[in-house]
Design goal:
CATH class of the largest domain: Alpha Beta
CATH superfamily of the largest domain: Bira Bifunctional Protein, Domain 2
Number of helices: 15
Helix content: 25-40%
Number of strands: 23
Structural class: alpha+beta
CATH architecture of the largest domain: 2-Layer Sandwich
Number of domains: 3
Largest sheet: 11 strands, mixed
Strand content: 25-35%
Radius of gyration: 26 Å
Strand order of the largest sheet: 3-7-8-14-11-10-9-22-23-21-20
């Protein structure tokens, strides 16, 4: 890009005065301070603003547009599999929350309580929903009577509140946006099928739309969701070698049903408890996209979820015919792609930096010479490659480039994950890898929570999952105690 801008400066097209200096000068290098780099990007790319409410963020239009694109795709996937959207109350009475012992204990440290309505103290305090299992359970106990009422395949889009000790935009905030699916089934087997089906939907969404490769697997007993029989996860690796839990899917069995007396009359005229699932993904998906694909110039967005797929930047737009041609292209291309035309009086150089910061996948430059030649210049955000393209087949070329960018981002992320995935049977090597070359570590485990806790205490790493499709090695020993291994685990430091 610098060479390109130099040429434009030389031609007198770009003004490089102080007010037009590259925005990226304000971004901390990711290699210098990854956390600060992340903070710089979410602010400079105009994704969020900080709020006076502790741990809460203002999601700005560009950030919310990314969320809307994610939401639209996932919502379509859910509906394709028969799920319906509902909406539950924001408040949960304490007595309702207390019905499932393991669940309430798991969330107790993070619950925000409402004690007053106006000036009057409430007879029973209510929590602001940290999750909605208990609300769905109460509702299901009212509407499920017969096997004919099953399955119930519900999902809701909402915000939840968890009083986090430390926060970071999108990754961990006091209030965050998410979707939570809650389903009820006749049998455990049907619930298990649903649990895995939804996990696979999340995995497909991450890989096909966010261009982020994932590891699918099951959480250990220590790491599973409070109140669940089993929890399944997709795990992603960020650029700095830390893990991020991308989404989770839980099989509750009939535990919640027994606590809330959710029963149905089966075909054999027997009263039985339903089996339930829940599954969810949050705005941390935006954080994942930033940390997997971003670079020192800002965001790099996969085309499939980018609010703007193509930005048109007129060159020497004061010259006759340039803006007219730019408007013509925008009208034509907007029928197929998400297009923005920047006809502001800011210099082309400033605009280049601005849209690089925002991660727009493709930039179209067109000036007098281009128009005369019936061409334009397309610039990729991921590789900075420039190509001169005939206006006659512009739509096809844009479609090809966007598809290639999507694939390239995935392949680049996969290569990074492979480079940062290690395997060891030696605990000292484990410690050394975590300290000096963070990433995923594959290591065997005996199944004892004490060994799992020791890894966390001595290294800061946690078990991420028992991976699908990867079995423990015959004769393998636990990384900690050297007893016979029960499972192969993925470990890593996590956000």
């Amino acid at each position: 890009m610098f060479y390109h801008i130099f040429n434009l400066v030389f031609e007198g097209i770009v003004d490089m005065s102080m007010e037009n200096k590259k925005l990226v000068e304000a971004i901390t290098s990711m290699d210098e301070d990854f956390a600060q780099w992340y903070t710089d990007i979410v602010k400079k790319a105009e994704l969020i603003d900080y709020s006076q409410v502790r741990g809460c963020m203002v999601i700005r239009p560009y950030g919310y547009a990314i969320w809307e694109n994610m939401q639209k795709v996932l919502d379509g996937m859910f509906k394709e599999t028969g799920h319906e959207n509902v909406y539950m109350p924001m408040f949960i009475p304490e007595s309702l929350l207390q019905k499932e012992k393991d669940h309430v204990e798991g969330f107790a440290p993070e619950v925000a309580w409402v004690t007053h309505g106006g000036s009057e103290k409430l007879a029973e305090r209510m929590c602001v929903r940290p999750t909605s299992e208990t609300l769905f359970c109460e509702h299901y106990s009212h509407i499920i009577q017969s096997y004919r009422d099953l399955p119930k395949l519900y999902n809701q889009w909402c915000s939840v509140v968890r009083w986090e000790k430390t926060t970071r935009p999108f990754l961990r905030t006091t209030e965050f946006l998410w979707q939570e699916g809650h389903t009820a089934h006749a049998t455990f087997e049907e619930a298990q099928e649903e649990t895995i089906r939804m996990l696979n939907i999340y995995a497909r969404f991450y890989e096909e739309y966010l261009a982020i490769p994932v590891i699918k697997g099951q959480k250990t007993e220590r790491e599973k969701f409070a109140g669940a029989q089993s929890t399944y996860t997709i795990e992603c690796l960020m650029h700095d070698g830390k893990a991020l839990q991308g989404a989770t899917s839980h099989n509750f069995g009939d535990g919640f049903a027994r606590a809330f007396n959710i029963t149905y009359l089966d075909k054999d005229n027997q009263l039985k408890y339903v089996n339930q699932t829940s599954w969810g993904a949050t705005t941390r998906m935006i954080g994942a996209v930033i940390m997997v694909h971003g670079d020192n110039d800002g965001l790099v967005l996969p085309p499939k979820i980018a609010p703007i797929e193509l930005v048109i930047v007129p060159i020497a737009m004061q010259k006759e015919g340039v803006l007219d041609k730019a408007y013509e292209l925008k009208e034509k291309l907007s029928k197929t792609f998400r297009v923005k035309l920047d006809d502001s009086d800011k210099s082309p150089g400033w605009k280049f930096s601005e849209y690089e910061m925002k991660g727009v996948p493709l930039r179209l430059e067109i000036g007098p010479k281009d128009i005369a030649d019936n061409k334009c210049v397309l610039v990729r955000r991921d590789t900075r490659e420039k190509v001169s393209v005939s206006l006659d087949n512009l739509q096809d070329e844009i479609a090809k480039l966007l598809d290639d960018i999507q694939k390239n981002l995935y392949n680049k992320a996969l290569k990074l994950r492979e480079e940062k995935t290690f395997e060891t049977d030696n605990f000292e090597d484990f410690k050394n890898i975590i300290e000096k070359s963070p990433g995923f570590i594959k290591a065997h485990w005996c199944g004892d929570e004490k060994c799992e806790e020791k890894v966390k205490e001595e290294t800061g790493a946690t078990s991420r999952c028992i991976p699908f499709g990867e079995s423990k090695r015959d004769g393998a020993k636990c990384i900690v105690c050297k007893k016979e291994a029960k499972e192969l685990l993925y470990w890593g430091k996590a956000y």
